[in-house]
Each structure stands twice: as structure tokens, then as C-alpha cells.
Amino acid sequence: MARAWRVIAIGVTAALGLCAAVGLFNAVIDPFGMTNWVKLAGINARKPERETHARLSKAADVRRVQARAIVLGSSRSNIGLRMTYPGWRAQPRYNLAFDAATPEEMYAYLQHAQAVNPLEQVVLGLDTWMLTGYPVSVQPDFDISLLARPGQRLIQLRGMVAELRVMLSLDTLRSSLAAVQRQDEPDSLAADGQRLGSLFYHAPGNELSRLGPRAYFLNYERHEIGLKVPDPKAAKATAANAGKARRGAPTSFDFIRDIVTFCRENGIDLRIYITPAHAHEMEMSALLPEWGAIEQGKRNLVEFLAQDSEFHHTPRVPLWDFSGYSVVTEEALPPENSRREMQFYWDPSHFKEGVGDWVLDRLFGIHRAGHEPPGDFGRLLTRATIESVLAEIRDGHARYAQTHPEDEEFIRRNFEELRGNAVLAFSPPAD
Prior knowledge:
Blueprint: H1 2-29, H2 49-52, H3 54-65, E1 69-72, H4 75-80, E2 93-95, H5 103-116, E3 121-126, H6 155-167, H7 170-181, H8 197-200, H9 207-211, H10 213-228, H11 232-244, H12 252-265, E4 269-274, H13 279-285, H14 290-312, E5 319-321, H15 353-364, E6 379-380, H16 386-403, H17 405-418
Parallel strand pairs: 1-2, 1-3, 3-4, 4-5
Antiparallel strand pairs: 5-6
Helix pairs in contact: 1-7, 5-12, 10-17, 12-14
């Protein structure tokens, strides 16, 4: 019996030693930028793994930076909005947007940032799909245990425990080993949370450099179309799940309302904008029922903001719409075989920093002499303007369809191929 206990003790000691070794190695390599113990050139100075583990690394960054101003949104806002833009009032500042973020996740990270350090400013970027009452969701790598909440006791201790759990993970060990091997790659995720498009899109092996700007744009567009038209089996499963959803279950729009309410209750200056994807994105929506859902979502958000302001006797949260047709969103694609990049876009979804600066000009009411936004870029949505703006966007679609027949044909053909050659027509709702 004594010998058996010795064997068990040796095994437990070995296991604890292995866990300690894994934890120490991960803490030193620090692939997600969570400990920042030591910086060793060629070993752990660059943190490329942060880009593919943004939800994890940004939860830790919030504790490190203790920002007073943040950006919430998807990869569009993460790439396009600079925290070094001169119109920000509060500091420190942090871009808390990340790839494929959902409103539920945004709300959780907003609470996390507020719990760590009270916020003064929030810019919320909404992609059009978020307005459509999309079922509530989070991504597989979302981990609520990493996030603090206002009023929670022992916030610092909870954060240390959560980060210790990450350091002891074998998944983190794999990321540490990968990080050591990737030290020659550029780190496109800046210390202030922004993903630097100039580094990300020009990284070695990136398809933009390999294919050229036009081919990359169209390839990405096919990917976007594929997301909008899932395979028949997936669509059937989604429909079945939707039918089982309980009545009154929260949607993406509900969490947008929660974000507005939270900011008002905590005295946070909130500004909202609808992101300026390329016109091709709206042309995709014109082939689907989502065009009408997007319009109604804009109406619903305008009405909610107006009612919230009236009921609580507070200033109305400004809502700017950049999703319409303009000289920015209608930028022409580069010619065939050209290596010339687009001025405003990396791909149909992601706009460049210059466009992001114009967005912030509108949101903050800043005038930068010689850098004014185009007159048709951005519309303030209120009860008084919403219907005229929606009509303007419909007119923009009709005009774009007439002047860009080749683009329309490309989009329609790709949709039909994915839908089994079902004939489709561009048909946003009439006035």
C-alpha cells in the first residue's frame, strides 16, 4: 500500500511539475500579450497569435490599458478606425472591435471595459446585418469567464485566475510554439487594439499581394456571397433551429438596445455609425430579402433612440449611416492585371483608415481643413430624415445598376451558381 501511495505521489508531483513548466513557458513566451514579463527579440517580441485570438488578447489588453475611450464593432471598425485620430477627447484609448464580433459580445466587452475603468467615450460600429433581428449568438472562442462586470467583487483576483487558466492551457502552449516560429512575421495588431491594414494586407503570403487588388476584391466578394447563401443542408438546419427558438428570445438588435441603455445609465458619450461597406455589399442585399430587413432595422433603431431620449430627458444618441451610395462606397475597381490598390477599400467589406477618419469627422463634428469628407458620404438618421435617406439609397441602387451592368452581372451570376441556378433579380423594396 505504501508503495502504491509513493507511485501516486510521484505521478501527482510529475503532473504538477509539468503544469508548472507549461505555465511558466507560456507566461514567458506570452503569445497573447497577457503577462508582458519579458521581451526577447527573435523569441517573443512579436505577437502574431494575438490576431487569431483577439477575443482573448483584447480581454487582457483592456485590463492593461484601462481605456477611457473605446471602439466596439466588427473587423471593419477594427481596421478602419484610428485611436490616434485627433478628435478623440478621452484617453487612454483602445480599439476593442474584433473579427466577426456580434452585438452580444460587444455588450459583454463594453461591461468588461467599464468594470476595469469607467468609460467616457464609446464609438459603436454596426454592420447592416446587425440591424435585422439576427438570432443572438457568440463565436466559439468567446469566453465570458475572462470578462469582468461592473459591481463584481474581486475583479482583479478574478482576472488573475482567468489568465492563469489560460497560461496552463495546452492550446496556449501550441500558440506559444507557433509564436516562436512566427517571429519574422509582422505584428499588425497595434498596442491600441487597431489592426493595421497596411501591415495585415501586405503580410507575406497574403492574397492581396499574390493575386492583385482586383482579383483579391472579387475573390473576397465570392466568399461574402457564400456566407449569404449557405449550402442547402446548413440552411435547412438553420431553419429548423429557428423554428425551435423560444418566442421572445433575444436578438442582435436587443443587445444594441442594451448597449445604448448601459451607456446612458453610466454617463458614457455614445456615438453610433452604420459601417460603409462597398456598394457591392448593398447590391448583394438587393438580391435577398435582407434589404427590407435592413431598412426596417434602421427605422427601429431611429425610433428606439428617439423614444429613449424623450423618456429619460437626455440628448439623443447620434446615429450616422454610411452604408448608402456615395463617391466613397462606389469606388471603381482597379483594371484587370493592375497592381494599383483601391483608395478607399481593401475588399468589399473593409474600408481604409482615410475613410475611417471621415467617419470620425462626422461622428465628432470635427472639421479638418483640406481633409473634409465628400458631401454625399454619411447621413444623420433621425425621425425627420430616415425615410428620405432610405429613398436616397434606393435611388442610388437604381443608378448603380444602370451604370455598372458588368458588376451586377458578376454578383447575380455568383448568387445563382450558389443557389443552383435559380434566377434572381435585383429588387429592393419600392417607396
